[in-house]
Amino acid sequence: MFAEAQAYLHMDEEWMWRFYLMDSQGRVIVISHRAYFTRDEALAALREFQLNLARAETG
């Protein structure tokens, strides 16, 4: 499920960055609970999230 997800960054209404994942149907399946001050922080958090997901999926 998550392996096919597309990742995106989004700046919210408070000028904070969040990441989210969408499935192949275009539905949002994950939105970061935390907001980040910079785009680089959000990208680093997204990469860490994806690594943890990959580890969890492979067992």
TrEMBL record:
Question: SUPFAM superfamilies attached here?
Answer: YegP-like (SSF160113)
Q: Which domain of life is it from?
A: Bacteria
Entries under Gene3D superfamilies matching the protein:
2.30.29.80
What the entry lists under InterPro entries is as follows:
YegP-like_sf
Question: What name does UniProt use for this protein?
Answer: DUF1508 domain-containing protein
